[in-house]
Structure formats: structure tokens, C-alpha cells
Task: structure prediction
Amino acid sequence: MSEKIGIMVCGHGSRDDAAVEEFQSIANGLRERLPQYDTEWGFLEFARPIIREGLDKLREKGCTRILALQGLLFAAGHAKNDVPSVLNTYAAQHDDVTIDCGRDLGIDTKMIRAAGERVEQAVREAGDHISRHDTLLMVVGRGASDPDANSNVAKVMRMLWEGMGFGWGETCYSGVTFPLVEPGLEHAAKLGYKRIIVFPYFLFTGILVRRIYDATDAVAARHPDIEFVKAPYLNDHPLVLDTFVDRIDEILEGTANMNCQMCKYREQVLGFEDEVALAQASHHHHHEGIGTGIKEHTHDHDHHHGHDHAHDHEHDHSHDHGHGHHPYPQADHPHGPASMKKTQG
Result:
């Protein structure tokens, strides 16, 4: 019997309809680029279809091998725990299909070029009345309780800063870790640059991207002598799609390896020593399919559990999901989530 390959694009999911639509746009782009494969997509939570439903569709189409792509920028808890846990559970329940999981988009020259073009677009639209040497670039990452993932945002910033020749570069985050956007921008405003470009290193829109832009407006109002420029996020840039295709090639070639050298679950990472060898797990089934009005599937699955989660995933929670809600050791940092309590109190 010949092998039939299908592609499953796995995303986190959002309560924001526009974010879900943008994710589906990328998945459709892959479907158009790779007509030789059946392509489906699904989310961990907050939107339909959920990952399991997308996998069901591929099985119904006769796929016997599924290449699972992670629609995630970096390998934090979602990529290391949540998505693999869902895929492994499904594979264990269906012995007629093999599932191979690809790695995160990660630090990649194509992704850096895509980011550079988004920043360049912002510079072009803002005008050339301020030189690059008088401009500070602020790259904003999502933020995670995984220091390796957070450090990757800093590397993206450095490569953009050095490659594009800005006067200075800084990094901040939308949640979990530090510095958050507002204290990060307040610090940047003290450095004496005439223009600050704020670039969200995000794939899709949503609550967090809007919060980044709102924080930019708040800091800009306090510093009218500095020009603040809001750059667009990555979205469906062609080079992003190229990177997804590369991840498929890696699976097929057997070279889809994550970076384990700095992984807090495998090595004694400074400050995170007690998280080595934590069990891989996901709790996202509590929120599967909840959130948006966009639905592609109508069948439901029952899940029985004895505890509730009432928080919104897209806020500045002090932990990453999965692996037992292990507490983030720097949750009380004055420039992290604690800073939001000060501004809101």
C-alpha cells in the first residue's frame, strides 16, 4: 500500500477572529503552494477547528502519514509540550496513521529577511527626515517562561539592528517575562534617540499585538519630542511561507531537530534548574474550540476533568501553559507583569 502524505498546520489559537483568519490565510497559502499534499490546520485552543479535528479530516482523506507543522515562532512550552502532547495522544489512538512533527520556525535567515522587510516598510512610510543612526529599533517578542525562547527574540533584534544599521536596538516582551513593552519603551526613551520603531515579532494580530501598539501610544504621549513608529507584524509574508515549506522538507529529509542545547527541560539552565525532565503534558483541551465565531467543524468531543481554568490565554499571565503550570521564577520582576499592576492600580 502506497503512503499518502498530508500536512497539518498546528497553531495556538486566539479569541480574536482576525488572528484566526490570518492563520488560515497562511495555511491556505501552503495548500496552494503544495497541491500534491492534502493540507489541513487546527488550533490548541480558543478556535475551531482544533488540531484533532484537522487530523480527523486528513485521515478521512486517506492520509497515512501526516507532517505536522508548528505555526509557532520559537520553541517554548507550546512547541515543546502542548502541540507534541496532542499529536502523540492522537497517534496513540489511531494506529493507521504516522505523525511526524516539525520544529518551530525559529532563528532563520528567511524569517529575519521577512522581519527586515516589515521594518523597512515602516521606515519608508515614516519618511527619511530622521536618520537610521538617530533611530532606535525596539523588537517586541511574545514572552515565555522559557529563557531560550526569550533569548531568540534578542538575537532577532541584534540581527535586524546590525543588518539595518540603526543607532541602537532593544528588546521587550508582551507578557510573562521582562521587560514588558511599557517599561521597555520608557527605558528606550531615555537613550536620546529621535525616533523609536516598535516592531512586534509576531505572526498574527490579536490582543497582544493591539496591546503593544496601545502601550506605544501611551509612552509616545509622555515623550512628544520622540517620533514613535509602529511597524507591521510578520503575517503572511512570502518568506514566512517559504520557511514553512523548509520545515516540511526537514521532516521528509529527517533533519527536523529542535535546539536542545539550551532547553530548560534537558539542561541545567541558570534559574530554571528544577524544571529539568518535567513530563510532557498539555492542558489546552479545556479551551479547545472556545473563543471565536469562526468554525469549520461542528462535531464535539467530551472531556472530563476535575478542575477549571477561567483565565484568558492572551493576557500577561506569569506562566507558560503545559508541563504542570510550573511557576515562572521571575514573575515578580519590577519590569515584568508586576509593572502592569502598578500602572493599573
User: Anything to note?
Assistant: Residues 294-324 have pLDDT under 50 and may be disordered.
